[in-house]
């Protein structure tokens, strides 16, 4: 895959923007995989920030290092207590370029999350995260075809069969009906509607990788074996939505974020947050 490289000092990534192949992959397959796309400083700085400087995850990882078994992974949503590296991800020049090239410039920051998955954690089954597809209010129906973008970051990577991401490539092209299950898609029942063969892709990515997905695509995560050579997999995610009404998890933006934001960043952050009853 031909990629456009960058030497910009203000970016955490090795690239300045997506190639045409990347853009075609997003529209045809529903995702773009970017292996080893972080700069060395970006990857190492983000790992240090998550594992050593964010106290909740530092303490969680300390229990793992002490040999204590964890029945659950660490998960926080929204992830507001971000340091310099994770904060820069929101409007890094490369991230901005990818979003503009795939969905245009009318979008907002929706929310973020952080996850640490230890050995022995089970799988996460196939699902879609476009919340307007799951509700039938007029506002949901009006927003159903708008983009909901998930940017998945894997600072320490994953191998196939070890808490790896997998997707049904092209499944974003199938209408969201109750009949359109992952099982039937993989059986070929919806190939004609998608205009292609729908196939499972089990990914494997080195440290410092990123996956950019249309949240309409079916995606899943495999289990992390108890004997995995990797003690834990780090995963953080930023989500963006087309400008418009809030999604299910569109977060309240902390006041200090707005106070410190540039005029361009304020365009991403100043929007309505989700509240109970806002769709009805």
Automatic annotation (TrEMBL):
Origin superkingdom: Eukaryota
Q: According to its UniProt record, which cofactors does this protein need?
A: Fe cation
Task: List the Pfam families hit by this protein, alphabetically.
Answer: PhyH (PF05721)
Q: Which SUPFAM superfamilies match?
A: Clavaminate synthase-like
PANTHER family named among the record's database cross-references: PHYTANOYL-COA DIOXYGENASE DOMAIN CONTAINING 1, PHYTANOYL-COA HYDROXYLASE
Q: What is this protein called?
A: Phytanoyl-CoA dioxygenase family protein
């Amino acid at each position: 895959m031909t990629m456009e490289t960058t030497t910009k000092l203000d970016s955490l990534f090795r690239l300045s923007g997506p190639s045409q192949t990347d853009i075609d992959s997003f529209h045809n397959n529903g995702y773009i995989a970017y292996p080893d796309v972080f700069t060395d400083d970006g990857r190492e700085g983000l790992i240090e920030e998550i594992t050593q400087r964010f106290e909740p995850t530092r303490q969680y990882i300390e229990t793992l290092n002490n040999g204590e078994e964890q029945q659950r992974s660490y998960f926080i949503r929204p992830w507001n207590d971000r340091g310099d590296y994770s904060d820069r991800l929101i409007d890094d020049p490369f991230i901005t370029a990818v979003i503009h090239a795939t969905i245009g410039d009318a979008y907002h920051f929706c929310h973020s999350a952080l996850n640490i998955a230890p050995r022995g954690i089970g799988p996460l089954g196939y699902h879609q995260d476009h919340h307007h597809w799951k509700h039938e209010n007029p506002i949901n129906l009006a927003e159903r075809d708008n983009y909901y973008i998930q940017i998945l970051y894997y600072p320490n990577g994953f191998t196939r069969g070890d808490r790896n991401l997998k997707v049904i490539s092209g499944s974003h092209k199938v209408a969201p009906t109750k009949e359109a299950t992952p099982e039937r898609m993989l059986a070929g029942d919806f190939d004609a509607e998608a205009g292609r063969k729908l196939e499972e892709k089990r990914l494997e990515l080195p440290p410092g990788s990123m996956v950019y997905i249309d949240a309409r695509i079916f995606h899943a995560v495999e289990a992390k074996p108890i004997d995995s050579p990797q003690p834990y997999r780090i995963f953080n995610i930023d989500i963006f939505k087309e400008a418009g009404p809030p999604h299910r998890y569109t977060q309240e933006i902390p006041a200090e974020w707005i106070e410190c934001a540039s005029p361009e960043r304020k365009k991403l952050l100043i929007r309505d947050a989700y509240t109970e009853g806002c769709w009805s």
